[in-house]
Amino acid sequence: MDTNTKLEGLKQFRETMADKNDFELLGVEESADDAAVRSAYFGLIKLYGADFFHHVVDAESREAIDDVNRRLRAAYDNIGKEAKRKLYIERLHGGGAFEADAHIDIADVFECEQALSQARALMERGEFAIALQKLEKAQKLDKKSMEIRARLAYVHFMLMDVDASGRRKRIEVEEIRSVIEEAAKVMEYADFLHVYLGDIEKLEGDNDKALACYKEALKINAENLQAQREVRLMEERAQKAKEASEKPKSFFEKIKALLTKPL
Q1: How does pLDDT run across 117-142, given as a tens digit for each residue?
Q2: pLDDT score at 251
Q3: How many Å apart are CA 205 and CA 138, to the nearest integer?
Q4: Cα 196 to the center of its chain, rounded Å
Q5: What is the pTM for the complete model shown?
Q6: Measuring CA to CA, which residue among 40, 129, 110 is closest to residue 69?
Q7: What is the DSSP letter of 51?
Q8: Vertex 204, ends 190 and 218: CA angle to 5°?
Q9: Separation of alpha carbons 156 and 98, rounded Å
Q10: C-beta of residue 21 within 8 angstroms of C-beta of residue 92
């Protein structure tokens, strides 16, 4: 499914949201367990997640994307875990304090999503120091978000000091890699996490692992432009290196090789 088709689907989905409660929005029964709600949520994020539309810039489409993602996150926040789901059901059928309490929860979710959306855009532009501030704000509002944790880890990596040889502290890099890998296992739709892992491996000097990470991102989302670019560049360099190694040596190169050969 191409991006334009996904965007049209998102806009149609947005038009149906107003009259739905959170169960109806995610397409699950009130008897659904945590795993079913989680599966439904990530299924919708795989279709409408903001990261699939990071290159969309027109105001109307951005508003639709943000609206859908805020509402999905609010729904998952309300019914994603059994304890909160039971409370939501009680309020849903009992009335009373539901609207006021839900407003508080949803307001926090909306503020969190706004900060996260700003952080995503800043990270796209390489403005990691400012993105860090936005992500820290988002994490205060949603301490359990795997996406926020993973993005924070990546930003910390990009802001890490390097030594004279261009290396970062090994232990810190391992911790950052572990956080992103954990998130990637949970957020199966999140191609950008594999791009982050690829960036880390590339900057740490392991091009083979980096290439594998970028290709994994493309398995999830074949339209990921950054992964496409990195795979193309790395494969082109590998091909040129192979051709250079197979190219017949000139007479002078052969003499030089003989003269420099260890005794």
Answers
A1: 889 889 989 999 999 999 999 999 88
A2: 63
A3: 32
A4: 8
A5: 0.62
A6: 110
A7: G
A8: 30
A9: 39
A10: yes
Query: Of 49, 74, 72, 69, whose CA–CA distance to 190 is shortest?
Result: 49
Q: Which residue has the tokens 């997640």?
A: 49
Specify whether the CB–CB gap between 42 and 188 falls below 8 A. yes
Residues comprising the chain, all counted: 263
With beta carbons less than 8 A apart as the criterion, state whether 134 and 117 touch.
Answer: no
**Residue 217 to residues 38, 182, 206, Cα–Cα distance (Å):** 21, 15, 17
Q: Is 98 exposed, middle or buried (0-12, 13-18, 19+ CB in 10 A)?
A: middle
- Cβ atoms within 10 Å of 256's Cβ, excluding its own: 12
The structure tokens 């398995």 sit at: 219
Q: Kindly give the residue spans of alpha helices, DSSP state H, lying in 30-169.
A: 34-48, 59-79, 82-94, 98-124, 128-141, 146-159
| CA 194 to chain centroid | 8
In whole angstroms, how far apart are CA 167 and each of 1, 28, 69, 205? 40, 48, 37, 9
